[in-house]
């Protein structure tokens, strides 16, 4: 059984990974603990509207994300957040 009707075939294919395996690999990287601590330190600093935001850690929104307990989620180094970026790619190329 084909997933595509007629002669339609995607012009590009994309790989996906199991989230649990990817997360295990991500957390086992040697530098990840230091990077997460650094991110939490950035989040602990108060928002400064006078500096140019060169990355997401400088933004007001990053510092205002609340967790289920209503405390600042990004201040804890192992509180991970994931974003989904959709580029609206049409695999059929039309």
Percent in helix: 25-40%
Inertia-based shape: extended
What ranges have pLDDT less than 50 throughout 5 or more consecutive residues?
Answer: none
Radius of gyration, taken over Cα atoms and rounded to an integer in Å: 19 Å
The class by helix and strand makeup works out as mainly alpha
How many individual β-strands? 0
What is the chain-wise order of helices and strands? HHH
**What does the largest sheet look like?**
none
Give the DSSP E fraction (strand runs of 2 or more residues). Answer: under 5%
- N-end to C-end Cα span: 24 Å
How confident is the prediction overall: mean pLDDT? Answer: 79
Q: How many helices does DSSP assign?
A: 3
Tag the structure with descriptive keywords:
94 residues, mainly alpha, 3 helices, 0% strand
Describe this structure in a few short sentences.
This protein has 94 residues and is mainly alpha-helical. Helix content is 29%, strand content 0%.
Describe this structure in words.
By secondary structure, the chain is mainly α. The protein has a domain of 62 residues. Helix content is 29%, strand content 0%. It is built from three helices and no strands. The longest helix has 13 residues. The radius of gyration is 19 Å and the shape is extended.
């Amino acid at each position: 059984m084909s997933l595509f009707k007629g002669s339609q075939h995607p012009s590009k294919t994309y790989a996906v990974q199991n989230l649990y395996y990817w997360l295990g690999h991500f957390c086992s990287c040697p530098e990840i603990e230091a990077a997460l601590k650094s991110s939490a330190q950035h989040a602990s600093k108060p928002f400064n509207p006078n500096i140019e935001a060169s990355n997401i850690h400088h933004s007001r929104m990053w510092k205002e994300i609340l967790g289920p307990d209503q405390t600042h989620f990004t201040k804890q180094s192992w509180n991970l957040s994931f974003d989904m970026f959709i580029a609206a790619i049409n695999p059929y190329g039309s």
